[in-house]
């Protein structure tokens, strides 16, 4: 596996891991399940594509097609992470609120479906802009470190 791909994959995993202690600071609870969840700080999508583009820029140069592809791919991923996916998460919040309101309004025992439905639609799908920026900065840092480490050897 090439170093650029390893850097991006390692950065994604590292960003996902960072969500655990950051959520602990926010909520006061350790939840290892945050490693597998989407959304939150930092954006692992942004971190991965930024580390890839940074590594390629340093290794091959910013005037190469390799960098152009990585940068364009990264911009699309980051736009999607905070745009389309965020909107889907906000829609899920509204649907969950609607289901709860219907449950409150209907006291008909035949409506057992609402009582049985314990699982809510997942609301954290996308990212706030600050989470995308945090992921991008983390990715640039890890891309630089990986390039520096490889050059040192």
Automatic annotation (TrEMBL):
Regions that span the bilayer: 65-81, 132-150
Record has Glycoprotein as a keyword: no
The record's listing under Pfam families reads: DUF212
Task: Give the highest taxon in the source lineage.
Answer: Bacteria
Keywords carried by this UniProt record: Coiled coil, Membrane, Transmembrane, Transmembrane helix
Keyword Oxidoreductase present in the record's keywords: the answer is no
Any idea what this protein is called?
Divergent PAP2 family protein
